[in-house]
Design a protein that fits this description.
By secondary structure, this protein is mainly β. The chain has one domain (22-89): OB fold (Dihydrolipoamide Acetyltransferase, E2P), CATH 2.40.50.100. The chain has strands spanning 22-23, 30-31, 36-39, 45-47, 51-53, 59-61, 65-75, 81-89. The relative contact order is 0.23.
Length: 90
């Protein structure tokens, strides 16, 4: 027989560094081609004119200019209308 009590399994021992997501350049700031404007998971912010979205949903500048954020109404697949933030470079 065992002389030591059974130890429980610990589930929170793994730790990973943060992904450094978020807005990197705010509205009114100047931007150059290829610079990262927003790092995100999923399409929380939409690319507008003068921007492009990469495979991991990062929004980059497609041209030199000034960053601009604005609310835009979009229609979901279910027909519901919601506001989403659109990122553009002017």
């Amino acid at each position: 027989m065992s002389h030591v009590k059974a130890g429980g399994t610990s589930k929170n021992i793994h730790d990973s560094p943060g992904q450094r997501l978020g807005i990197k350049l705010f509205g009114g700031e100047s931007v150059k081609v290829g610079q990262v404007i927003v790092r995100q998971v999923g399409m929380t912010k939409r690319p507008g004119s003068g921007t492009m979205m990469s495979r991991n949903f990062t929004i980059h500048a497609a041209k030199d200019g000034v960053v601009e954020f604005k609310k835009k109404k979009i229609r979901l697949f279910s027909g519901k209308s919601v506001y989403r933030t659109e990122v553009s470079v002017k």
